[in-house]
UniProtKB/TrEMBL annotation:
One family name in Pfam for this protein: TetR_N
UniProt keyword Hydrolase, yes or no: no
Organism: Gordonia jinhuaensis
Name this protein carries in UniProt: Transcriptional regulator, TetR family protein
PROSITE patterns, alphabetized: HTH_TETR_2
Domain HTH tetR-type stretches: 47-107
Amino acid sequence: MGTIPGTRENDTGKNDTRTADPAKVDPTDGVRGDSAGPRPETGRQSRLTRKAIVSAGIEIADAEGLGAVSMRHIAERLGVGAMSLYRHVADKDTLLLAMSDEIGRRFPYPVDRVLPWRERVRVAVELDWDLYQRHPWIVLAYSSPRHSMGEQSLIALDWMVGGILELGVSVEEATEMALTVWIFIQGSALAQVGEELLQTRSQNDDGGALVDLLDGHADFDPPPHLAELAGTGARSSLIDPRQRLDAGIEFLCAGFEERARRSQ
């Protein structure tokens, strides 16, 4: 999102303060029994970085879904102990925020370009749609403010707000409009990738009751207003998530303009 489309370093040093017990020191550790200190890191642990952890989390989410992301799974993938991850990432919430922000960094808004507000909205649609298709799990991550509003998201949001201010609305209203655009893109993308997220894709192309109604194959009496659509076959504009997104964005933008006109 507009999504949307790094997060600040937040290392806590957890588990980095453990010291050796003088009574249990192994001379081969190279630690003097009379001067306790941190255990030396293994080769892999010494090369462990926050970036590597975040990248591994993204790879797991892409391959297995967001639910498969855990500190233990990432540690296994990187060949290190799970506790060593906490020296770089405080907890899972911090990890998910960092993953979301990294995805936003990979799909950056052109914040150095001065574009009219409608073009900025269109940029958000194109970039965020592509982002959601490539990383479906991010739809779920972005649904939680604590996992989505990192530094990268704020940079993108600020660029969107700067354009919408052309309408003469307040910063607060412009922010509401920008967030509404993001939410609409996210909802449309969810309709596109939902089956993949739910892992319920079937062999048949059952589009549900609305598709049956439009095709004229409904086995029920349609409600009075929708009855006019029965058998029209207007599937592309009403069923296809991307076409609904494009049409809906136009409705939103028209509404923004009308709202701005009335407030002046």
